[in-house]
Amino acid sequence: MLDPVNEIDHIQVSLIRALASQQRLRIVHLLTMEVNELAGELGLAQATVSQHLAAMRSVGLVEAARDGRLVRYRLADPEILAACDLMRNVIVRRLSVLGSLAAAEGRASQATASARSRSAARRRATQRRPAAGRYQPDQVTHP
After folding, report:
1. b/e per residue, 4-27, with b = 16+ CB within 10 A?
2. What is the mean pLDDT of residues 71-88?
């Protein structure tokens, strides 16, 4: 008996694996272009772009339709792009939070370093200094 939850998980993992490539994510966002245009935009060989598209097609992310000698690709479901955009937005928000934390940590580190400098300066200023003209054993006096 099939477990629908398990099957859906399996399909989702396949889709995510197929998108686990910077080039494939870029292809999803640029899919309105022809394969040769995609290749130029991505700086890849046309054969490489075709291989990426074939991998995405094999898991159902994209569909292909022949138009004479050309093969036109499109997303199998427009919500794939929406899902990629949603994940990108999550990442941007997460980086913003991490950036804010890093900035706060930087400010705290600067404040700690500044406090240490002030404390060291106070210690140096309060160290006992010999009185002027007073003989100190480690001083050498010349006639």
Report:
1. eeeeeeeeeeebeebbeeeebebb
2. 93
pTM of structure: 0.65
Distant-in-sequence, close-in-space partners of 52: CB < 8 Å, separation ≥ 6: 21, 23, 24, 27
Task: For residue range 80-135, list pLDDT tens digits in order.
Answer: 999 999 999 999 999 888 888 888 888 888 877 777 777 777 777 767 555 555 55
Burial class (CB in 10 A: 0-12, 13-18, 19+), 71: middle
Q: Are 62 and 76 in contact (CB under 8 A)?
A: yes
Q: Degrees (nearest 5) of the Cα angle 100, 20, 80? A: 90
Task: Give pLDDT tens digits for 50-65.
Answer: 999 999 999 999 999 8
CATH of 4-77, one of 1.20.140.10, 1.20.950.20, 1.10.10.10, 3.20.10.10: 1.10.10.10
Both tokens of 10, joined, read 């399996």
